[in-house]
Write a sequence for this structure.
């Protein structure tokens, strides 16, 4: 079998490819979630004050005026019949995540987003806002100065915006007022849910837990669930999980190739294999040149001047057309390294990978974003 020069260059660069074992070591806590132990989403409607003329306008956001009126009335200020048209107030939605086992008085971060026509929340202060969960119960209240990452600079005849100045955050801006009633230590059966379901990984987690405890407590129910039977165990469920969550297990990674066409990024797994295949890669350039010719009648002859089209089409091939036969022992990472060294663009690499996948030469899942 004859090897082409570009393939020899690809294989020569094989030592530059960092090789990892097919199955990487990971802690159990990093690959599973404990069923029932999760965050709860919170949301609330609030008012931001103190803006430097960048708030909502009454014409486009009448609800902002209504909210400010109700707020002032609750504070004992009578504004009935008054026309309030402030430019330093904005209506916002406040969102947060309530961590599991949060206790009263603990602080959580909140995110702020404008829902009116405010141009910026920079310098604003969020007024006391109740945050509710899906059961319509208040679990936290938020208040504080807003941190905005985006900027909005205006000058006479020009304006520049970077990021999103109408969104922001308040670190530790909410206090938990209600706890989620969940007695974890009363569980007799605990389910561990794999974040990426896989038969091999689930079986290895089961074997690792049973070997570490010396008792067959873990059983694989399906590729995404390992069940722990704690009946007859004197140790508390929380203490038991603390003793197994840091155990190392080999995680079986799927053979997958991810191509991001916008950024030109190609990510491939270590288990991607290639069958025997021939590859031809080259660029074709088509050049069309128009050279119109003017045709005029002879002197004293009847006729009209005309412009006659004359086109010239040239087809050339830029670069070298490379054809190579790949053995099964050549990995895709070696092929990518060689193509990268030869200056092949990420878009051309993606086209080559797609063509090899269509030909059945790549044994992996292809994900294109």
């Amino acid at each position: 079998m004859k090897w082409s020069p570009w393939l020899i260059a690809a294989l020569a660069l094989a030592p530059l490819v960092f090789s990892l074992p097919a199955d990487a070591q990971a802690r159990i806590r990093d690959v599973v979630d404990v069923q029932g132990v999760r965050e709860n989403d919170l949301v609330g409607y609030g008012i931001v004050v103190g803006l430097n003329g960048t708030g909502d306008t009454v014409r486009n956001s009448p609800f902002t005026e209504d909210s400010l009126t109700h707020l002032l009335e609750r504070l004992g200020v009578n504004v009935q019949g008054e026309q309030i048209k402030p430019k330093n107030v904005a209506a916002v939605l406040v969102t947060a995540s309530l961590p599991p086992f949060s206790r009263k008085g603990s602080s959580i971060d909140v995110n702020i987003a404008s829902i009116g026509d405010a141009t910026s929340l920079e310098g604003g202060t969020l007024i006391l806002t109740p945050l509710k969960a899906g059961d319509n119960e208040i679990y936290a209240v938020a208040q504080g100065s807003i941190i905005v990452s985006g900027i909005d600079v205006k000058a006479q005849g020009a304006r520049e915006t970077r990021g999103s100045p109408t969104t922001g955050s308040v670190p530790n801006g909410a206090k938990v007022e209600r706890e989620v009633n969940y007695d974890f230590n009363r569980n007799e059966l605990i389910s561990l849910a794999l974040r990426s379901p896989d038969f091999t990984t689930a079986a290895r987690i089961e074997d690792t837990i049973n070997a570490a405890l010396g008792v067959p407590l873990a059983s694989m129910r399906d590729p995404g669930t390992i069940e722990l039977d704690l009946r007859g165990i004197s140790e508390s469920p929380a203490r038991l999980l603390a003793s197994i969550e840091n155990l190392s297990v080999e995680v079986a990674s799927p053979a997958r190739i991810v191509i991001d066409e916008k950024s030109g990024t190609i990510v491939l797994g270590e288990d991607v294999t290639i069958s025997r295949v021939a590859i031809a890669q080259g660029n074709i350039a088509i050049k069309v040149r128009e050279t119109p010719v003017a045709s005029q009648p002879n002197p004293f002859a009847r006729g009209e001047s005309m412009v006659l089209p004359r086109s010239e089409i040239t087809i050339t091939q830029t670069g070298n057309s490379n054809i190579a036969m790949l053995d099964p022992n050549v990995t895709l990472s070696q092929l990518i390294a060689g193509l990268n060294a030869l200056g092949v663009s990420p878009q051309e690499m993606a086209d080559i990978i797609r063509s090899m996948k269509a030909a059945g030469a790549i044994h992996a899942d292809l994900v294109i974003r």
Q: What stands out?
A: The first strand starts at residue 23 and ends at 27. DSSP finds six helices and 23 strands in the chain. Helices lie at 5-12, 62-74, 199-213, 237-244, 332-341, 346-358. The radius of gyration is 33 Å.
